[in-house]
Amino acid sequence: MRPTRLPDPEYDAPPTHEDLMLRVATGDEGAFEELYEAVSAQVFGLIRRIIRDEAQSEEVTQEVFVEAWQQATRFDPARGKAISWILTLAHRRAVDRVRASQASRDRDLRQGIKEFQETYDDVEEGVVLRDESHRVLVALERLSQAQRDAIRLAYFGGYTHHEVAVMLKIPVGTAKTRIRDGMTKLRDLMGVA
């Protein structure tokens, strides 16, 4: 008959989070799995309270555990508990995600406002130009036919005084006078100083 072994608390007790973290620092994947199983719900809960979106919370939780794996050698049990260290990583990541998300929304909002403003400005400018064009056309109709023809060729056609004179079969001086007098009358009719 074999003697019954008495339980030894030092060997039979489950490893602490700190023990697991120290083993993770040596690259022990089994210890990492145990640690993940032990604290992932708590880590996810903290992140979920900060981020609120479940999918993003899951993503950040995964990032936290990747960081814990990669940075495990930085954990010092003399400075605090492993769960506190991991929750600090989680809190920082979650807050960073919220800030990045807010910055992205702010950028999108600014861009949307800018695009709306540009569209609004384009529409407003178009309305002003149409209104101004209408006023010019109405005022042009109040000029003499000779002035109207000379101004249309010079300003809307882009012709020089000499070209206007040739096209209207008049002397250059007469073309200049018709354009000058027509523009003076046009300004008066439109109320432009």
Characterize the overall form: rod-shaped
| Main β sheet profile | none
| Cα Rg | 41 Å
Kindly state the mean pLDDT as a whole number? Answer: 85
Entry keywords:
rod-shaped; single chain; mainly alpha
Q: Short summary of the structure?
A:
This protein is mainly alpha-helical and 193 residues long.
Give an overview of the whole structure.
The protein starts with 8 loop residues before the first helix and ends with a helix. It is built from 8 helices and no strands. With 193 residues, it is mostly helical. The chain has helices spanning 9-12, 17-25, 29-51, 54-70, 82-140, 145-156, 161-168, 172-190. Helix 3 packs antiparallel against helix 4 (54-70), helix 3 crosses helix 5 and helix 4 (54-70) packs across helix 5 (82-140).
Secondary-structure map:
Elements: H1 9-12, H2 17-25, H3 29-51, H4 54-70, H5 82-140, H6 145-156, H7 161-168, H8 172-190
Helix pairs in contact: 2-3, 3-4, 3-5, 4-5, 6-7, 6-8, 7-8
